[in-house]
Fold this sequence. Notes:
Porin
Amino acid sequence: MSLVMLEISALMVYQKLEKNLLRNLTFSTEVTCNGYHSWETSFAYDILVDGKLEKLPITKLAVYFSYLNGDMYEVNTGTVTEGRCAGDVFFSANAYVANDQDGCAGTKGAAAFTIRYIEGRLTGPKCGAICTLDTGLITLNPPVRNN
C-alpha cells in the first residue's frame, strides 16, 4: 500500500459551473508498476458555482486503474446523488506519467507523476459539462517499484 498525495486543478466548461476543483487529497491505496485494480467509493468533488463553493457528491463512484511501467491510466464513473446536478452521470478518463521513466525498474522506485490528461464529463439535463486539466501532480510514499 502507498500513501497517495494528489494535487489537481481542473477547469469545467459549462455555463452554470465556473470551475470544478478536485481537492488536494491524501489516501492509501494499492499501486503497482504493472497491473490493474478497481474499487467503488463515495466521493464529493468541490465545484464553484456563481462564486460559491458547492459539493458534487457521488455515492457510488466506480474507479478503474491500469498501470504500465509505472504510468497510470484511470477511469471513473458514477451518478451524482445530491445537489443541483443530482441524477447526472459523471465520467472521467485520466493519464498520469511517471516523472522518472526508469523508476519502476530502479532501486528508488517511481514516486512522482505528472497528470498529462484529464477529461471529465457531466452528462444529463441539469449540469452537462466538460472538464479539462489545469494542473496536476501525484506523489507516492513509499515509491512504487517492480517486485
